[in-house]
Amino acid sequence: VHRSLLASLSAELDKHVNNDMKEGTQGVMELSEVDEGTMNAFLQWAYKGDYNMLCNVESESDTMACSDNPKASSALLGHTKVYVLADRFNTVRLKDLAHNKIAALLEHLGMVAASNDVEAVMASVSYAFGNLPFSSSSSSSITTSTEPLVKCFAQYTSWAMDVFRGKPEFCSLLEHSPDFAKALVTN
């Protein structure tokens, strides 16, 4: 990846590639927590201004760009990971693009019914709540999030509560993520 391109994407990335530390001197950034699909989407966006997620449609061997199949819930987690990476490096345009793709997928999914859709939504919500800040922005004692994707997922899950209630993935998320439970009530 061209150093000047990375530096132009955000002030945060500029600090990483133009410094006297390993990233700057050796021209290498290690992002072991970022999977290949997320990195490919990031690089595609960096060079082209947009990205497509590849998702499984029918089977492991049958992949297509999820943009060709807007109801492909398997793309939801991929877009969420791209959003989290964009948040980490404060690349606002990518963060906005990923958020728009997530919102469009949630709109197309509507009230999820298929079990694989429920699993995809819960995996995405869990990833977002585990990797994005949940900050207090209220003067009262109630904690709320100012993070747009956290709010989006909390509102969507609240709206589709009847679908999620009783599902093991949902119950586990409530149990292991108090911030998620708070967001359901406060957003």
Polypeptide structure, described:
This protein has 187 residues and is mostly helical. The protein has helices spanning 3-9, 11-17, 22-26, 36-48, 74-88, 92-109, 115-131, 148-159, 161-164, 168-176, 178-186; strands at 54-56, 63-65. The chain has a two-stranded antiparallel sheet with strand order 1-2. A hairpin with a 6-residue loop joins strand 1 and strand 2 (63-65). Helix 1 (3-9) runs antiparallel to helix 2 (11-17), helix 5 runs antiparallel to helix 6 and helix 8 crosses helix 11. It is elongated. The chain starts with a helix and ends with a helix. The relative contact order is 0.10.
Summarize the structure.
The protein has 187 residues and is mainly alpha-helical. 62% of the residues lie in helices and 3% in strands.
Total strands: the figure is: 2
**Major pleated sheet:** 2 strands, antiparallel
Query: What kind of assembly state do the chains in view correspond to?
Result: single chain
The order of strands across the largest sheet is 1-2
Considering DSSP H and I runs of 4 or more, what fraction of the residues is helical?
55-70%
The helix tally amounts to: 11
Structural Rg: 18 Å
Shape: elongated
Strand content is under 5%
Catalogue the unreliable spans.
56-64, 136-141
- Whole-number average pLDDT? 77
* Amino-to-carboxy terminus distance: 39 Å
Helix-strand string: HHHHEEHHHHHHH
